[in-house]
Design goal:
Layout: E1 11-22, E2 25-36, E3 40-44, H1 51-59, E4 66-71, E5 74-75, E6 86-89, H2 101-111, H3 116-129, H4 145-157, E7 163-167, H5 175-192, E8 195-199, H6 203-209, E9 212-217, E10 220-225, H7 227-232, H8 237-242, E11 247-257, E12 260-264, E13 272-275, E14 285-290, E15 296-298, E16 307-318, E17 322-328, E18 334-340, E19 355-360, E20 366-368
The protein binds adenosine-5'-triphosphate (ATP).
């Protein structure tokens, strides 16, 4: 399933050069993106970058100042919110406290005057889908937070929208329940085939549930790609830094041919070796982004390492399954190396102030031209 890589695939949603201004402030800045049927698309970015504004434009609560939004090829601008095949699930769930679970789910269908028999069938189907059959007659205050979240989901899917917008849908749940619910959400999305667009502050959540993640900044999408590509091949320092932990080393590149570069980065240090598919000119400023888990920490200088630097252990973060070592180089640079604690070992194989070597291969990092 990768319609975004298929030039023939027809998008369900198209943002075409969409700009949204509030007075003199540009909240969405000439943004274009295609979202495909059955996608689970996540919007990720710092507070104020325009995630909610994108959702509100899809739902019809806001209109683009410039540009167009198409749903199944049709400009949705003239279509009022309640006539769009789009539903929005809010973080607060907005359940009716005096109505049972069953009536909460049936609410929109009754309002649409759907025949009674069809309503019953549809509500029962939604109860099965969200595993709420046993709770149909309970009121929202008589069920748990996780169950309330599922009622809200069942209600938003009852009318079989083409597109469901989820604004921090799991924000009210504690971490463990949140993680379990992420898998449930993926399962329900797959079963119904509905396109989901989710806004979340939690990058792990976006990486877990989404088919593609869009990393936003100041009303623009900086990169929209699969979680693996976002993590492995970020297109910028911004994206590399936003997702997960990363070492960013600034330097000046010298091309050596075949995508290989030598990078001068610190006085008295051997140049680093890296590869990049981006064309970087001689002397151009560049950044090498390396994930801590790609950096190996050893007591002795490793033989044949493309890159090896010496430093001292400055800090250790023990995370149970992983340990992250912060190693200080003679010039004050800190480089993080992460090791997997796969064997039952002592908490620390290196201690504070230990002299260590850090090494990585020429292809371990991503060399960015910006
Ligand atoms: P958060 O993660 O904090 O919810 P967000 O990425 O969803 O942030 P938006 O709510 O889309 O951000 O807001 C984007 C920018 O547009 C913000 O700077 C916000 O202050 C501004 N904005 C949003 N709605 C309005 C409005 N109705 N009038 C004026 N400015 C607005």
């Amino acid at each position: 399933f990768a319609p975004w890589d298929d030039p023939q695939a027809k998008p369900l949603i198209q943002f075409q050069n969409v700009t949204k201004r509030f007075g003199g402030f540009t909240a969405i800045d000439n943004l274009s993106i295609d979202i495909f049927e059955r996608e689970f698309f996540a919007l990720l970015g710092p507070s104020g970058c325009g995630k909610t504004t994108m959702m509100r434009m899809l739902a019809g609560f806001e209109k683009p100042t410039e540009g167009h939004i198409l749903l199944a090829g049709q400009d949705i601008d003239p279509i009022p919110p309640n006539k769009r095949a789009v539903n929005m699930m809010f973080q607060s769930y907005a359940l009716f406290p005096h109505l049972s679970v069953w009536d909460n789910i049936a609410f929109g269908l009754k309002r649409d005057k759907m025949p009674k028999r069809d309503i019953e069938e549809r509500v029962d189907e939604m109860l099965r889908l969200t595993r709420l059959e046993k709770f149909a007659s309970r009121k929202p205050h008589q069920i748990s937070g996780g169950q309330r979240q599922r009622v809200a989901l069942a209600r938003s899917l009852a009318k079989a929208p083409k597109l469901l917008l989820l604004d921090e849908p799991l924000g009210a749940l504690d971490k463990k329940l949140r993680q379990d619910t992420q898998f449930e959400l993926m399962d329900i999305q797959e079963k119904t085939g509905t396109t989901f667009v989710i806004v979340t502050h939690d990058q792990e959540e976006a990486m877990t549930v989404a088919s593609r993640v869009a990393v936003m900044d100041h009303g623009r999408i900086i990169q929209a790609d699969t979680p693996a590509r976002i993590y492995e091949t970020p297109n910028s320092v911004y994206v590399a830094d936003f997702i997960g932990d990363v070492n960013i080393i600034e330097g000046r590149a010298t091309p050596k041919g075949d995508d290989s570069y030598s990078i001068d980065w610190a006085e008295g240090q051997t140049p680093l070796q890296a590869t990049s598919s981006a064309a970087i000119e001689k002397g151009q400023k560049c950044h090498l982004a390396i994930r801590p888990e790609k950096v190996t920490i050893t007591a002795e200088r490793p033989a044949d390492a493309a890159n090896a630097v010496q430093g001292k252990v400055h800090d250790i973060a023990y995370l149970g399954n992983l340990s992250t070592y912060h190693v200080e180089l003679p010039n004050g640079t800190i480089i993080k190396a992460q090791t997997a604690n796969t064997r039952r070992i002592s908490r620390r194989s290196f201690s504070w102030e230990d002299p260590v070597w850090l090494s990585w291969t020429a292809t371990a990092g991503v060399l960015l031209a910006n």
